[in-house]
Amino acid sequence: MIDCGEGTQMQLRRCHARFTKLSRVFISHLHGDHCFGLIGMVSTFGLLGRTAALHVHGPAALGDMLRQQIQFFCRDLGYEVVFHPVDTTRHQVIYEDRSLTVESIPLCHRLPTCGFLFREKPLLPHIRREMIDFYNIPQSQIRNIKNGADWMTPDGETIPNDRLVTPADASRSYAYCSDTRYQPELYRLLEGVSTIYHESTYGDDNLLLAEKYNHSTASEAARVARDAHAGQLLLGHYSSRYEDEEVLLREAQSVFPNSLLTQEMMVVNV
After folding, report:
1. pLDDT in tens, 165-211
2. Phi-psi region of 77 (alpha: psi -120 to 50; beta: other; left: phi over 0)
């Protein structure tokens, strides 16, 4: 989960997400609309009998706050909440497992803030089933072939690996750029990302407000996606002064055509 605003646990129920599936939470910064729901969710997990550890990544200042809240509101929680401080000024890998890495993205807001870049690790190629059947290659060797091994027939003929597989699917990546003012060089960290979420609080008509409050306009978000050669851009974090966010979409699409407006409960293929 990325960020945890007020009402998060209610939204989880609305989208029928299993609470037990959530193992890590990444908090971008300590404004309420990004973290007020965390302690309520932690408490609810305890009441439901959770036993698996919950890992929370966020700015260092969150650590003491979270520990105090747990001590006060969640005694006898029943599971461990593990906090991992993130240096919001550095671009670095902050988490890694067998399938992906998570990198921090330094952002510029009114207090320490970072985004997160999720990168799927390179996938294995696809087996050509007809070749496997033709050469009677046993199932036990499939993994070796996916990892690049050739195959030698009983007659001593070597079948090169590239005849046995087809190329792997391209790895996916998702960049979450939370509250931030426009950073002209940000695209360098996001080169070739499949999907970027970038805040787009204002339109061009309120550029001065965006600069004053360290937010971005929709067209500025689109410039980041364009310069990064991203696959698609998701817009969000709209100012309430816009009754119709279509104006933000039009401004973004004039710069980067493959831009979308995000809405609650929306599902996007990255």
Report:
1. 999 999 999 999 999 999 999 999 999 999 999 999 999 999 999 99
2. alpha
Interatomic CA distance for residues 167 and 159, integer angstroms: 17
Sequential DSSP letters for the chain: -B---TTHHHHHHHTT--GGG--EEE----SHHHHTTHHHHHHHHHHTT--S-EEEEEETHHHHHHHHHHHHH-TT-SS-EEEEEE-TT---EEEE-SSEEEEEEE--SSSS-EEEEEEEPPPPPEE-HHHHHHTT--GGGHHHHHTT--EE-TTS-EE-GGGTEEPPPPPPEEEEE-S----TTGGGGGTT-SEEEEE--B-GGGHHHHHHTT--BHHHHHHHHHHTT-SEEEEE---TT-S-THHHHHHHHTT-SSEEE--TT-----
Task: Evaluate whether 101 touches 24 at the Cβ level (below 8 Å).
Answer: no
Determine whether 33 is an active site residue: yes
CA distances from 196 to 5, 24, 33, 172, 199 (A): 20, 20, 20, 11, 10
Distance CA 170, CA 174 (A): 13
* Catalytic option among 33, 64, 97, 169: 33
Residue matched to tokens 């979270």? 66
Burial label for 210, CB within 10 Å (0-12, 13-18, 19+), is buried
Predicted TM-score of the model (pTM): 0.90
The token pair that represents 5 in the structure block: 């605003």
261 vs 222: CA distance, rounded Å? 12
Region 58-74 average pLDDT:
96
Could you tell me if 193 and 178 are in contact, meaning their C-beta atoms sit under 8 angstroms apart? no
What is each CA distance from 234 to 38, 119, 191, 212, 225, in whole angstroms? 24, 17, 16, 23, 9
